[in-house]
């Protein structure tokens, strides 16, 4: 007996998204069976644009609680599964095709589908930075959103890991909104959870309040209750703060502290390699860049990933180091490895021509 195709409700919360919402809905409306838009107070053309796609538009009085708004949006869904997007998200053409295949083949016993979320693309449309999100969930499970700010969807049961991606296309949004929500909570004497300590520190660093960001990252790590990926990210951001403040000793300290939480990540190896390269300490730079090419991304890592550090970048930097050391054959080898990831990169192609000249090789073009 053929499997019945699942039905999907798209649920979104929006406010003043006239510059984004049409692109988002254009990419998604043919993938879903129902569109529910919860508007939290738009004063622009957002609702007018949305009406071209659905009449299921619901007003919601904004109360500085993202989880509450998202839970309300989910409560409007009537189909088998719920897909959530933000207005500045988009499914690119290939991902639309993959999503339709997923929809046709999804086993209805699956409770949630986890999908990549591409935050930054390069000029060729390839992801530079991404993480993962539980993006499609079975409505009958009644999963709930948690957290006033930087909310997350708490899921359990059978989770399918998919390669179908959602791509972020917008800017940072209302720059001060989240910071003000956190500071209002602190002013009321509320105690922030470990997760909120981490995200408040992120808001502080985004606002260039580096010393205060350091204070809250350290409070977060001191709880010992953070998700491993957030712990690692906090170490990276602490290293950023200390580097900006010209405290190199502490920058090193938190690069190495990240290794306490998991195997070394390529992002930290590249950071250390770059530091030593700037000092012309080439052997040390080679050590760290070489390690970056050898470590493996944990298979269960759902944290933010900088793909450059896991692919072409350390090879390109090894090319630079080995060239300075007069080891041109090794420089050429690593440049070729970088070229496999970025065959049109002008800098890598320039290196190729230069090294072929040094080594007396005949260029292939």
TrEMBL record:
GO terms for molecular function: glycosyltransferase activity. It is an enzyme of class 2 (transferase). Residues 9-108 form the Glycosyltransferase 2-like domain. It comes from the Bacteria. Keywords: Glycosyltransferase, Transferase. SUPFAM superfamilies: HCP-like (SSF81901), Nucleotide-diphospho-sugar transferases (SSF53448). Its EC number is 2.4.1.-. This is SPBc2 prophage-derived glycosyltransferase SunS. It comes from Desulfosporosinus acididurans.
């Amino acid at each position: 007996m053929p499997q019945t195709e699942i039905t999907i409700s798209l649920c979104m919360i929006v406010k003043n998204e006239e510059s984004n919402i049409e692109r988002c809905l254009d990419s998604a409306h043919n993938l879903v069976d129902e569109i529910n838009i919860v508007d939290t107070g738009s004063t622009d053309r957002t609702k007018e644009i949305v009406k071209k796609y659905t009449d299921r538009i619901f007003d919601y009085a904004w109360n500085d609680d993202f989880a509450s708004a998202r839970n309300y949006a989910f409560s409007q869904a009537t189909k088998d599964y719920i897909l959530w997007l933000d207005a500045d998200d988009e499914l690119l053409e290939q991902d639309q095709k993959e999503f339709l295949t997923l929809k046709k083949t999804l086993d209805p016993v699956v409770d949630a589908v986890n999908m990549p979320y591409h935050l930054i693309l390069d000029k060729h449309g390839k992801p530079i930075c991404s993480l993962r999100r539980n993006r499609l969930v079975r409505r009958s499970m009644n999963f709930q959103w948690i957290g006033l700010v930087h909310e997350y969807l708490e899921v359990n049961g059978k989770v399918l890991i998919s390669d179908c991606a959602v791509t972020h296309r917008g800017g940072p949004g209302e720059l001060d909104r989240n910071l003000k929500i956190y500071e209002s909570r602190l002013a009321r004497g509320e105690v922030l959870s470990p997760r909120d300590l981490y995200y408040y520190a992120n808001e502080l660093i985004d606002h260039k309040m580096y010393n205060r960001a350091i204070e809250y990252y350290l409070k977060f790590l001191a709880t010992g209750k953070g998700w491993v990926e957030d712990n690692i990210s906090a170490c990276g951001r602490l290293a950023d703060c200390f580097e900006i403040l010209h405290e190199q000793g502490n920058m090193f300290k938190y690069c190495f502290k990240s290794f306490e939480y998991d195997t070394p990540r390529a992002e930290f190896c590249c950071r250390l390699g770059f530091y030593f390269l700037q000092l012309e300490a080439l052997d040390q730079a080679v050590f760290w860049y070489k390690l970056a090419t050898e470590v493996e991304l944990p298979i269960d890592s759902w944290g933010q990933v900088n793909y450059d550090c896991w692919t072409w970048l350390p090879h390109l930097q090894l090319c630079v180091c080995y060239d300075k050391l007069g080891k041109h054959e090794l420089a050429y080898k690593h440049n070729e490895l970088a070229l496999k990831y970025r065959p049109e990169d002008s800098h890598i192609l320039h290196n190729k021509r230069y090294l072929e000249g040094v080594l007396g090789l005949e260029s292939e073009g």
